[in-house]
TrEMBL record:
Species assigned in the record: Rhizobium meliloti (strain 1021) (Ensifer meliloti)
Pfam families: HTH_1, LysR_substrate
Record-given protein name: Probable transcriptional regulator
Domain HTH lysR-type: 7-64
Family assignment from sequence similarity: Belongs to the LysR transcriptional regulatory family.
Keyword DNA-binding (UniProt): yes
GO molecular function: DNA-binding transcription factor activity; sequence-specific DNA binding
Entry keyword set: DNA-binding, Plasmid, Transcription, Transcription regulation
Amino acid sequence: MKMSKQFPLNALRVFEAAARLGSFTKAGNELGMTQTAVSYQIKLIEESVGEPLFLRRPRQIALTEVGQRLAPKVTEAFELMQEAVASARGDAASTLLISSTATFASQWLARHIGTFQLAQPNMAVRLSANDAMIDFSIEAVDVAIRSGLGVWPGLVSHRLMKVEFTPMLSPALASTIGGVNEPRDLLKLRIIDPQDRWWPLWFRAAGVRDADLDGRVPTRLGAQSFEAGAAIAGQGVAILTPQFYTDDVALGRLYQPFDLRGSDGHDYWLVYPHARRNVPKIRNFRDWILSEFNQDCGA
């Protein structure tokens, strides 16, 4: 691949948009250009590179092998330039935008993020807490906390914590049936969200194979943190991640009747686009949160 000395930066911007969006038309709409102008800029960059970057098909384009190698590096380069300009300007682009599951946000991140802000006093933090899977290509998010197996194409992922689950309830509720002495005793009480996939896994591991959870009235509350609140209020037994509720156990608001914990392989992960792995604010947050979890900080 041969580069000319007069490298067309504007054409690179057009190439990045077309590669990211998979369409010359969409790239033109984003950049305020006609499709003809987009095609011209793509032709300029291909002439500079000396290789075709797109396969042109009827109503469809696809990156060539050279284009596939070039696209992520160009995206990363523009991200770094934007970050550098924002840092020099000292404006809102120095804000870190975090998307997190509601439970992780309320039970861990909200309790620790102040440490990060003390270490980065010039960086503002915005947190969006919901369980929806965000698309980094269309949403203004820098990093996300996801629950899953840790494999998402195009994203760097770092395991934060292994997720385990076990039944938890208030001591007062347990006393209403004379205590919870064996796993089957839990079935004497209201089960919060009996359709949660964790319940049958835990009961089977506990040797209870006839729990009949399907026959119970569904009570889906939308997030584990809400289920924990219902359990603290004595409204039933919730299946929770005990690492999040050590304070409630210490205060006597919840207790874990059995040592048995289950896992379905879905852990908590920090994720962000591979092309943005060297953006300073992302790197700083990654190093901080992995340090908090005592994990390897390598990208």
